[in-house]
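Q: I'm building a small set of examples for a reading group on sequence design. Run inverse folding on the following structure and report the sequence directly after it, with nothing in between.
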């Protein structure tokens, strides 16, 4: 029983690897198993990498070619694309001129779009546009009895069928003395209404395009102003519908 107890205690002791003997101290620390394991894993990893690269080199197509092979060079162990000989660095002054040309082009297109909008507005008059604010016409009467018996067609001196019209609402006298000009058939009237609606749609698209061009002009101008070395603080962030706003430090001109 005592021998079993002694064997049980011996098994409970932690095993410690011996240290470097005194006469070998000049050789440094004695390598332990965990140190050997790290060194062996690193060695095998490198051997496997070399074997994979050797296999890749053996299986490589000798006719393989792509232009990056001759258009790049090594710099500090990293492949960097070569700059063409004719490429010239652009100075800050040249960048400003180029940016100003971009602004002039966009502004020219915006002005042309604005002229087209004005011409379309002149043709359509925006008389029956959906987005146009509805006008109100107030009539004053003397008594409540007149309010109850009020006749709008009689007041406007026109036919009851033409009361809802915003434009082209002739009086009864005009209808009696003059002949009807323009389209009369319902089919032609519907066709003209469709064409008018299409023109309004084009006008709305042009107005949106003009607004977007104005925003682009502002953003380009802001980026051009940011090239200045003057100290600045951002006041408002850039949004899809507006350029960023910066506050520049005041500079006294000498």
């Amino acid at each position: 029983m005592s021998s079993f107890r002694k064997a049980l205690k011996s098994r409970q002791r932690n095993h410690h690897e011996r240290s470097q003997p005194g006469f070998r101290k000049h050789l440094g620390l004695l390598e332990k198993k965990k140190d050997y394991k790290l060194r062996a894993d690193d060695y095998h990893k490198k051997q496997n990498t070399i074997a994979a690269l050797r296999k890749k080199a053996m299986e490589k197509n000798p006719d393989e070619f792509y232009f990056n092979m001759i258009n790049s060079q090594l710099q500090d162990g990293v492949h960097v694309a070569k700059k063409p000989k004719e490429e010239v660095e652009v100075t800050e002054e040249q960048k400003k001129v180029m940016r100003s040309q971009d602004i002039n082009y966009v502004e020219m297109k915006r002005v042309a779009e604005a002229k087209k909008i004005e011409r379309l507005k002149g043709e359509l008059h925006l008389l029956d546009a959906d987005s146009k604010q509805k006008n109100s016409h107030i009539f004053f009467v003397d008594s409540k009895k007149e309010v109850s018996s009020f006749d709008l067609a009689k007041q406007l001196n026109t036919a009851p069928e033409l009361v809802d019209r915003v434009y082209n609402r002739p009086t009864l006298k005009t209808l009696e003395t003059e002949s009807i000009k323009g389209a009369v058939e319902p089919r032609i009237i519907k066709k003209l209404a469709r064409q008018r609606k299409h023109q309004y749609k084009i006008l709305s698209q042009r107005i949106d395009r003009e607004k977007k061009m104005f925003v682009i002009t502002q953003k380009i101008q802001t980026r051009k102003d940011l090239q200045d070395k003057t100290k600045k603080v951002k006041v408002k962030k850039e949004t899809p519908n507006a350029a960023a706003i910066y506050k520049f430090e005041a500079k006294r001109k000498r």
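DSSP finds seven helices and four strands in the chain.
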